[in-house]
Design brief:
about 525 residues; about 20% strand; six-stranded mixed beta sheet; binds NADP nicotinamide-adenine-dinucleotide phosphate; 20 strands; alpha/beta; Rossmann fold; eight-stranded parallel beta sheet
Length: about 525
């Protein structure tokens, strides 16, 4: 059993009761009373809080009581003797777990009272915790053994700071390799996946905050996100994993759309944001780390900025198979891990865009010989130009940096022009592949309003806002429009099919993204 715990970090008993109520209502399976936050702390206050939890939410609702040392992340620096009395009082009042700092427990004067209270308690367990707020532990497995050798009934809790996602694997390995009960994960944004995967790997607890403002440690996600996006209720040791590799990754909508699809299909699968900072070496190290640990169960990846080229190189390096057009585009945005570990690289960006266009113009065949103006010469433009040329379209690329437009045009046999010539556009289909018009600069359009004509189709790959100024102008002039959400949803649906072999619930997944965009 791995509990999803919410730390209660109130300054008064009244506030703590409110926080406990909100935590339970949000789905907390355990509350951790961080009594070091309570002002003018007394044993009576803690006993009252435990009685409140047990009375209100049932005797079996578990409680951890902590009164942490400031050096180990505590809020108010209460003297150690008083903190021990609080923990002993908590055990006597029925706390299921008390959490004491390992560094303080090894001091002989600090042990006796706690050991006696533990012996008298029917179910109370001692968590011996050690935190590193700056770094990883040099030898987490050694530290774990040291704690258990010192006091075998303890539950070791080892929490460290990840500077990079690759630092998460120490904690994950510890959880996987230990048969005794244990708590381990990494703090910091880079450690986020270790908090979620702690649940899969049987960490006694993993923590989520009530809200971002009430987080008690860096990188803590909210209980709402944990339950609604990261599917905490269905994570178990068999859960298969997927994720989006990106930097930054925080605002990606891919976890929401894919997890919504998995939940709808009742798949035991979870999709995570995978913040992989750095260059090819870091990407390679991350991929090697996850693929070497087959017990983690990673089966597929979405890949975006800045790793699409790295993904292509990695799959090739490992002897995997690349979809021919992805190879030509020079970018892979989807990696699938086959049953025998063989890797397959795809690009669903171009296919997602072409499908969105085909839907509007009456089929892919209509693109044959069609005049198309593409504005932009970056990654998305490259994928869409490849798809358009493959479908037989006559493409002209307009870009601010002419050198880039020339290079792209040469590679795919198209024409090109500087961006200041967009006024001349006389194409049937116009596609914006620049970031111009994207929130917060949504008052901009990459082309002047005069370019739009009746009968034209205008496609904006920007999806935030959904209706860009470009699309508003196009509609006013009687042109047909395609928004960026269609491409985003199409490429995600294609990834979903590559990941699962089945089609996702498009309407539900699209609505999930729309809800997010509206927020
Ligand atoms: P990228 O590789 O960085 O390329 C950016 C492009 O925008 C370049 O052509 C750049 O011109 C141009 N640009 C940027 N700022 C400009 C400005 N102020 N004036 C004129 N041109 C400007 O980015 P990308 O990966 O291709 O992504 C481009 C856009 O596609 C994103 O902003 C996003 O909104 C959209 N997108 C949509 C989806 C979807 O599924 N719908 C998916 C991914 C991305 P220079 O070459 O001159 O710098």
């Amino acid at each position: 059993m791995s509990y999803l715990a919410v730390p209660i970090s109130a300054e008064t008993v009244g506030e703590a009761i409110d926080q406990i109520r909100d935590a339970v209502a949000s789905g907390a399976e355990l509350v951790e009373l961080r009594t070091d936050f309570i002002e003018d702390l007394t044993c009576e206050k803690v006993v009252n809080l435990i009685s409140h939890v047990k009375g209100e939410y049932g005797k079996l609702f578990p409680v951890i009581v902590t009164c942490r040392d400031v050096a180990q992340g505590g809020a108010i620096n209460y003297p150690v003797k008083m903190r021990i009395d609080i923990l002993v009082g908590a055990l006597n009042a029925g706390a299921d777990f008390i959490d004491f700092e390992y560094k303080n427990f090894i001091i002989p004067d600090n042990q006796e009272k706690i050991k006696v209270a533990l012996a008298d308690s029917v179910k109370g367990r001692l968590i011996l915790s050690h935190h590193d707020f700056d770094d990883t532990f040099e030898n987490i497995a050694g530290l774990y053994r040291k704690i258990l050798t010192f006091y075998p009934p303890a539950i070791p809790k080892l929490i460290y700071t990840a500077d990079h996602i690759n630092d998460c694997f120490d904690g994950l390995d510890l959880l996987y390799n230990t048969s005794e009960q244990c708590v381990a994960f990494a703090m910091g944004e880079a450690g986020m996946i270790s908090r979620v995967l702690a649940r899969k790997l049987g960490s006694v607890v993993t923590f989520a905050s009530l809200s971002e403002a009430e987080a008690t440690a860096p990188g803590q996600i909210t209980i709402k996100e944990f339950k609604n996006i990261y599917r905490s209720d269905s994570i178990d040791c068999d859960t298969e994993l997927y994720g989006i590799i990106a930097d930054p990754v925080g605002h990606s909508m891919s976890p929401a759309i894919h997890n919504a699809g998995f939940a709808d299909a009742d798949f035991n699968k979870l999709y995570l944001p995978l913040l992989v900072e750095g260059d090819y070496e870091d990407f390679e190290e991350f991929m090697d780390n996850v693929l070497r640990r087959s017990w983690l169960g990673f089966k597929g990846f979405s890949v975006t900025i800045p790793h699409k080229e790295n993904a292509l190189e990695y799959v090739k390096d490992k002897g995997g198979q690349i979809e021919p057009l992805a190879e030509k585009i020079g970018a892979v945005n989807t990696i699938v891990v086959g049953p025998d570990g063989k890797l397959f690289g795809y690009n669903t960006d171009y296919a997602g865009a072409i499908e969105a266009i085909a839907e509007k113009i009456g089929g892919r065949g209509e693109l044959d010989n069609m005049d198309v103006a593409v504005v932009g010469a970056g990654g998305v433009s490259r994928a869409i130009v490849a798809g358009l040329v493959d479908a037989g379209a006559k493409v002209k690329i307009y870009n601010r940096t002419v050198r880039k437009a020339k290079k792209l045009a040469k590679q795919f046999g198209c024409e090109c022009a500087p961006l200041n010539k967009v006024g001349e556009i006389n194409a049937k289909l116009l596609i914006n592949c620049t970031s111009v018009g994207m929130s917060p600069e949504s008052d901009n359009s990459p082309v002047p309003v005069e370019v739009h004509r009746e009968g034209m189709v205008v496609f904006d790959t920007v999806y935030n806002p959904l209706e860009t100024l470009l699309l508003r102008h196009a509609k006013t002039c009687g042109a047909e429009t395609i928004d960026g959400l269609e491409m985003f949803v199409n490429q995600a649906m294609m990834q979903f099919e590559l990941f699962t072999g089945t089609q996702g619930n498009r309407r539900f997944m699209r609505e999930t993204v729309l809800d997010l965009l509206e927020k």
